[in-house]
Design goal:
The complex is a heterodimer of chains A (119) and B (508).
Chain A: H1 10-23, H2 31-38, H3 42-53, H4 57-73, H5 80-86, H6 92-103, H7 107-114
Helix pairs in contact in A: 5-6
Chain B: E1 2-9, E2 13-20, E3 25-32, E4 44-45, H1 47-66, E5 72-80, E6 86-88, E7 98-99, H2 107-114, H3 117-126, H4 135-145, H5 147-152, E8 155-157, H6 159-168, E9 172-174, H7 175-178, E10 184-185, E11 190-191, H8 193-199, E12 208-210, H9 221-227, E13 234-240, H10 241-248, E14 255-261, E15 265-271, E16 283-288, E17 291-298, H11 302-312, H12 321-332, E18 343-346, E19 362-365, H13 373-396, E20 401-407, H14 414-424, E21 428-430, H15 438-450, H16 457-461, E22 468-470, H17 474-493, H18 495-507
Parallel strand pairs in B: 1-5, 5-13, 9-12, 14-20, 20-21
Antiparallel strand pairs in B: 1-2, 2-3, 4-7, 6-8, 10-11, 14-15, 15-17, 16-17, 18-19, 21-22
Helix pairs in contact in B: 4-8, 10-15, 11-12, 11-13, 12-13, 13-14, 14-17
The chains are: A mainly alpha (119), B alpha/beta (508).
């Protein structure tokens, strides 16, 4: 019997998951929740995500969180504390540590160095 | 011991690899990012996500594979997909996502230009076929359809230019990526005034054009610290992925061509002269001041076979496309060449070279009561490869080649490589089993040349040693040619019907 098409196309399924994650980025996602959305067990899900994206599900999520944070840091009108929570870090300390480890900058240094002061 | 790091900013993923100075692969790693389609014709990527993915993959890779073994990173060389456009504002902040090569929104702008006198002269000057893929037409689209974004734009960058600017602060674009924008005069290596005028921009709106060997400024201190790199690491801007793949296949000079079969595909030759194609079928991209990579791209390669597998294949395990495709290919091998008269036109996503028709669509032709599923599978693969052969034929009107070097994941299937050899009637080498992909190898060869290990790219390319070979069988070739003739006539005869059906599909 022909299987449901949603169990065939991982790129498309992952795209939908990614969209859901982005729409609820402030939520503290667990791997269990993500795997359930795709309809796979945790192990199979993690393996599939790793081979497709190169990242574990939680690292992929951090990737999205930091990318979104960078966009907000490049706007002057949002506070760093708000950015941390908006993109899903549980504290601004957690945000600052993760951000610095990856980019070498703290979020506020990054903002200062990347955006010239404008009127 | 010194090593070279290569970074490929590809269509769907960053690929990082390290080589020792003999060209031996130390390791490789990848990280993918999504393509967004806000509308059917739109294909966009988030520049910040690409940048962060690159940092993330590079950092983990260095920490896992390079630093523990005490390698000294001598240089980092970049390559990227072609045709991307990223508008940034006066502060250098991206104005939305980048449009990538597959973005088709500028179809009308491209059609209008292609059929004008200006279009003909721009193709001659820039070497880029007039098509929605080209950044020239994307900028014209912005000018006409997104006036606010267009007027807030300080510069239109390529994704690679943006990444390098983030790392170093410098706005530069290499000859190779620039030559795929439709705005670089490939004869003078300067931005083409006529193209800029047509796009309504000035030279200052584009990055400075530099050689593929150019070293941008040092990495910013913060990135040196987070990546664990010293300030003497040499950055090399590198070229487009297509030029790197050609160099990395050792296809350099007369008598050789390379075939890339990924999701999309291309047939390319390298040489010291530009190919002037009267009917604008072929591209001419620049690698150095006197090396050109010429050829044609197809939209419908691996992606079409994957489409077939997802629709009609047997998935024993959820999402196991690899296994499903292998079984299909195994079934296809039981059918004789020619699929007993079943012919497939693979134009599911319109087609670029050689027909350049966005309205072309897929067709199975010649179906009779004896055909079974395995005939469809084989016909699908044959149709995909006929498209490559048609590109090859148009190339051979300008330059002959005696052998093919095949790269990309689909050429690793022996059946595909053998069919390629039979259809082209030429021996095929593949990079299967060599453990590295041709884009990374090309980036290594370019770096090694920049470091003085090779005297020039000709010497570097001559070191590529391709292991596997598939030899053509003339009786199969003859069968394929009879079918390919019908394939080409069908493509031509269906021109009006392609237009009609595309219009109908547009209404849905």
């Amino acid at each position: 019997m022909r299987q449901n098409n949603s169990r065939r196309d991982f790129p498309q399924t992952f795209m939908k998951l990614e969209q859901t994650l982005r729409e609820n980025l402030s939520h503290q996602w667990t791997v269990e929740e993500m795997a359930a959305l795709v309809g796979l067990g945790i192990t199979a899900f993690s393996e599939k995500v790793k081979s497709f994206t190169g990242f574990s599900p939680l690292n992929y999520l951090i990737n999205i969180r930091i990318s979104e944070a960078i966009k907000l840091l490049k706007r002057q009108d949002v506070h760093v504390t708000d950015i941390a929570l908006d993109v899903g870090f549980y504290s601004s300390q957690h945000f600052a540590t993760t951000f610095k480890k990856l980019t070498g900058y703290t979020p506020s240094e990054f903002r200062k160095k990347n955006i010239p002061v404008t009127d | 011991m010194d090593c070279v790091i290569t970074i490929e900013i590809g269509t769907g993923a960053i690929r990082v690899a390290a080589f020792d100075l003999n060209g031996t692969v130390i390791g490789s790693s990848k990280g993918s990012y999504p393509t967004f389609h806000a509308k059917p014709n739109f294909s966009e990527q988030d520049p910040e996500q690409i940048f962060i993915t690159m940092l993330y993959v590079l950092k983990n890779f260095l920490n896992e594979k390079v630093h523990p073994k005490k390698y000294n990173v001598a240089c980092i060389c970049f390559s990227s997909a072609m045709h991307s456009v990223l508008p940034i504002d006066k502060n250098g902040v991206p104005l939305g996502n980048a449009m990538v090569w597959s973005d088709n929104r500028a179809k009308k702008e491209a059609d209008d230009l292609k059929h004008s006198i200006l279009g003909k002269s721009l193709y001659k000057a820039t070497g880029t076929p007039i098509h929605a893929m080209s950044p020239l037409n994307k900028i014209i689209w912005l000018k006409t359809n997104d006036k606010n974004r267009f007027s807030s734009t300080q510069k239109f960058l390529s994704i690679k230019t943006y990444i390098i600017q983030q790392l170093t602060g410098e706005y530069v674009v290499d000859y190779s990526v620039a030559s795929a924008t439709g705005m670089l005069n490939i004869h003078t290596l300067k931005w083409e005034e006529e193209a800029l005028q047509h796009a309504g921009i000035q030279t200052g709106a584009l990055a400075d054009v530099v050689s593929v060997f150019y070293s941008p400024k040092k990495l910013k201190k913060e990135f040196q610290t987070s990546l664990g790199l010293h300030d003497k690491v040499k950055l090399i801007i590198g070229s487009s992925d297509g030029c790197m793949a050609t160099l990395g296949s050792g296809v350099w000079g007369d008598g050789k061509a390379t075939v890339t079969i990924e999701e999309s595909g291309a047939v390319r030759v390298a040489g010291k002269e530009i190919l002037e194609d009267e009917t604008q079928r072929l591209f001419n991209y620049v690698l150095t001041e006197h090396d050109y990579v010429s050829g044609g791209p197809t939209n419908n390669a691996g992606s079409v076979f994957e489409w077939y597998a997802k629709q009609f294949g047997d998935f024993k395990k959820a999402f196991d496309l690899e296994d499903c495709m292998e079984n299909l290919i195994n079934d296809a091998s039981k059918v004789a060449p020619g699929s007993e008269g079943l012919i497939f036109l693979p134009y599911l996503q319109g087609e670029r070279a050689p027909i350049w028709n966005a309205n072309a669509r897929g067709v199975y032709f010649g179906l009779n009561i004896k055909h079974e599923q395995q005939h469809f599978i084989r016909a699908t693969i044959e149709g995909i490869l006929y498209a490559f052969y048609s590109i090859g034929k148009s190339l051979e009107e300008h330059r002959c080649f005696k052998s093919l070097s095949a790269n990309g994941s689909f050429s690793a299937y022996p059946l595909w490589a053998q069919m390629m050899a039979d259809i082209f009637n030429k021996p095929v080498h593949t990079q299967q089993g060599s453990g590295s992909d041709s884009v990374a190898v090309g980036s290594f060869l370019l770096s090694a040349t920049a470091l003085g290990i090779y005297k020039d790219l000709d010497e570097a390319a001559a070191t590529v040693n391709l292991p596997d070979q598939f030899f053509p069988q003339i009786q199969n070739h003859n069968v394929y040619m009879k079918h390919h003739a019908i394939y080409e006539r069908l493509t031509e005869k269906l021109l009006d019907e392609f237009e009609a059906i595309a219009e109908l599909q547009q209404e849905n």
